[in-house]
Structures are given as structure tokens and as C-alpha cells.
């Protein structure tokens, strides 16, 4: 696995140095990384806010059926208790706990891809579809920026935006992730700074609208950054917003308490156009497992977290962004 990881890093560096465009997917554990021709749409369809590799198709759908079967609360509660034990033991102070939810729907993954609207959409044939609202990093003429997303609330709640901006748990969690991302960026860039702190976006879904809180952090890369595209990304993985802090120990705990392997979920997808790069975190993610569809979701756990509220948030995030 380590050889495959290093081979992928070297290949990305080589393509970057030659200014050859490519697309890529890197899983959470960096065990099954994939590199694609920028224009190939036979196995992978993708869209970023700026560009896509496919022509939109019209799908006429009947009323969407969407039935979900999340893990039982008792199962989630056991994992939550283990996380709290590690938090009170000082092993971690923020951990992103995730679980799978079985989904029954009358839509295929490809239909969901074409019908949905999200900043980033990815469909990998026979494997997964993802509708990510979260940027991982962007590189624009030598400036690298990251946009960690931490904090979710139902947009229909009275004064929802003020509630999320004033929620003690959400504020503490967001501060932690911003500090972590600043540290991650400082490993690859100079002049790292927070450009925007705790701004709120609205996301429309087939269930209800959500508000999500994000920040923007940026830094300056070396002049020859294109020769090190793979190395730069590898140094920052996994994404801080979907593991926690401190990162190495928190990843150990995640592997202990979660009942499954994340796979491509919470990994990253990105495109390099020959000079600049755009990428997202693979969240809002639905995976094919034989005849079964599993939606993977979760949220950040701190010492202030309430188990029932966190369980509800996990379920709230099981949606397709079809208005």
C-alpha cells in the first residue's frame, strides 16, 4: 500500500511538472488512490464550480423515493461513549465520528448525479456518487487556500444562523479545525492567514435546507509548486475537518470506534488544469455495496457534545441535493 501511495504522489508530481491536466481521487487511508485523464468520462463524471467533464443529461424522474435506515441509536451511543472516554483521557479533543446508513431509493447513482445540484459532484462507476459542499484546497497562481466546514443546522429553525454562530459547542469545534488547518497549510506554505472566519452557506436538499459554517485560510506556495502537487496534498491528508485534532492520535481512535472502513468517503477528489488545482472533501457520499446503497455521514464530537443531537445530525446529513 505504501508503494502505491508513493507511486501516486510521484506520478502527480510528474504530471504537475509537465503541466499535464489530470483528475484524481484519494481515499481516506490513501490505499486506493486513482488518477484519471482530465477529459475521460467513461468511468468518472465530475463537476467543480468552474468546469466539468461531461454534457448534462436530462432525466425525467417520478416522485423520488428516499427511505433511510440509520444505525440504531444504541450502536451510535456505544461509539460516542468510547469517543468521550478518549476525550476525557486527553487523547483527542475533537473527533469526527461517522456511521453508514442504508438507503432505499428509486434513483440510480448516475440519475442522482445528473439530477442533483452541488458545488462538487463526482460519480465513479459502480462505486459511489458524491455531492460535496466542502472545498478541500484550491491552488490559484501559487496561493493555496483551504475552506474547512464545521457546523450544521436546519435552516428552518428560528434564527438558525444566529443559533449556529452563537452555539458554544459549534464555535469551539470550528476554532479547533481552523487552528488545525492553519498548521496543515504551514507545512507546505508561508504567510498563512485566516481570510474569512465563520461564514455561513445555505444548502438545499430533498429533505430540508441546511446552514453550514465555514472559514477560509490561505498561504503562499513556493514558485516551483507544480512539481510538488502530489507531495503538497499528501502532507495535508487526511483532511482535518473530517478527522479531528490532534490529527494522528484522532485517526487511530477513528479506526478503533467506527464499525467500517471509510474507503473513499472523507477522502478527496480534485482536478489539476496544468497550473491551478481545485479539490473537495468527499462528504455527502452514497456508496454501492453489492445490491445495497450506503450513505456515510457524521459530525464532530467534543466534550460539549450531546449524543442525541449528534445522532440527529448524522441522520440530517443523509440527503441528495435535489431541491
Please describe what this structure looks like.
- The protein has 323 residues and is an alpha+beta fold.
- The chain has one domain (2-316): 4-Layer Sandwich (Anthranilate synthase), CATH 3.60.120.
- 29% of the residues lie in helices and 33% in strands.
- The protein has helices spanning 2-17, 73-88, 109-115, 160-166, 168-186, 229-236, 247-257, 307-316; strands at 22-26, 34-37, 44-47, 66-70, 94-105, 120-124, 128-132, 135-140, 143-146, 149-154, 190-203, 210-220, 244-245, 268-272, 277-281, 285-289, 292-301.
- Strands 1, 2, 8, 9, 10, 11, 12, 14 and 15 form a 9-stranded antiparallel β-sheet that branches. Strands 3, 4, 5, 6, 7, 13, 16 and 17 form an 8-stranded antiparallel β-sheet that branches.
- Helix 1 (2-17) crosses helix 6 (229-236).
- The radius of gyration is 19 Å and the shape is globular.
In summary, what is this structure?
The protein has helices at 2-17, 73-88, 109-115, 160-166, 168-186, 229-236, 247-257, 307-316, and strands at residues 22-26, 34-37, 44-47, 66-70, 94-105, 120-124, 128-132, 135-140, 143-146, 149-154, 190-203, 210-220, 244-245, 268-272, 277-281, 285-289, 292-301. It is of the alpha+beta class and 323 residues long.
Overall pLDDT score: 91
Classify the fold: give the CATH topology. Anthranilate synthase
Low-confidence stretches: none
The proportion of residues in beta strands is: 25-35%
Can you tell me the CATH class? Answer: Alpha Beta
Helix residue percentage: 25-40%
* Main pleated-sheet profile: 9 strands, antiparallel
Number of helices: 8
CATH superfamily: Anthranilate synthase
Number of beta strands: 17
N- and C-termini, Cα separation:
41 Å
Radius of gyration: 19 Å
Overall domain count: 1
Q: How would you classify the helix and strand content by structural class?
A: alpha+beta
H/E order of the elements? HEEEEHEHEEEEEHHEEHEHEEEEH
CATH architecture: 4-Layer Sandwich
Anisotropy-based shape: globular
Amino acid at each position: 500500500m505504501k508503494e502505491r501511495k508513493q507511486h501516486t504522489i510521484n506520478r502527480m508530481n510528474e504530471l504537475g511538472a509537465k503541466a499535464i491536466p489530470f483528475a484524481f481521487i484519494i481515499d481516506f487511508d490513501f490505499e486506493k488512490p486513482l488518477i484519471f485523464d482530465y477529459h475521460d468520462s467513461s468511468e468518472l463524471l465530475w463537476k467543480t464550480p468552474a468546469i466539468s467533464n461531461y454534457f448534462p443529461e436530462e432525466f425525467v424522474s417520478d416522485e423520488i423515493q428516499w427511505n433511510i435506515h440509520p444505525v440504531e441509536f444504541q450502536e451510535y451511543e456505544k461509539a460516542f461513549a468510547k469517543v468521550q472516554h478518549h476525550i476525557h483521557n486527553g487523547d483527542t479533543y475533537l473527533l469526527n465520528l461517522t456511521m453508514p446508513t442504508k438507503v432505499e431509493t428509486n434513483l440510480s447513482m448516475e440519475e442522482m448525479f445528473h439530477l442533483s445540484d452541488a458545488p462538487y459532484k463526482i460519480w465513479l462507476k459502480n462505486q459511489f456518487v458524491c455531492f460535496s459542499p466542502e472545498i478541500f484546497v484550491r491552488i490559484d497562481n501559487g496561493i493555496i487556500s483551504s475552506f474547512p466546514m464545521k457546523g450544521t443546522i436546519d435552516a428552518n429553525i428560528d434564527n438558525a444562523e444566529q443559533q449556529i454562530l452563537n452555539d458554544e459547542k459549534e464555535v469551539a469545534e470550528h476554532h479547533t479545525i481552523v487552528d488545525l488547518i492553519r498548521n496543515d497549510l504551514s507545512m507546505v506554505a508561508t504567510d498563512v492567514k485566516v481570510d474569512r472566519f465563520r461564514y455561513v452557506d445555505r444548502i438545499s436538499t430533498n429533505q430540508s435546507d441546511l446552514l453550514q459554517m465555514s472559514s477560509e485560510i490561505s498561504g503562499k506556495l513556493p514558485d516551483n509548486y507544480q512539481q510538488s502537487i502530489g507531495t503538497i496534498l499528501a502532507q495535508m491528508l487526511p483532511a482535518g475537518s473530517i478527522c479531528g485534532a490532534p490529527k494522528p492520535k484522532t485517526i487511530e481512535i477513528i479506526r478503533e470506534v467506527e464499525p467500517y472502513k471509510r474507503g473513499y468517503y472523507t477522502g478527496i477528489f480534485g482536478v489539476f488544469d496544468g497550473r491551478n488545482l481545485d479539490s473537495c472533501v468527499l462528504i455527502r457520499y452514497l456508496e454501492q455495496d453489492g445490491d445495497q446503497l450506503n450513505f456515510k455521514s457524521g459530525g464532530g464530537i467534543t466534550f460539549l457534545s450531546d449524543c442525541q443531537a449528534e445522532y440527529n445530525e448524522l441522520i440530517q446529513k443523509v440527503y441528495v441535493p435535489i431541491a
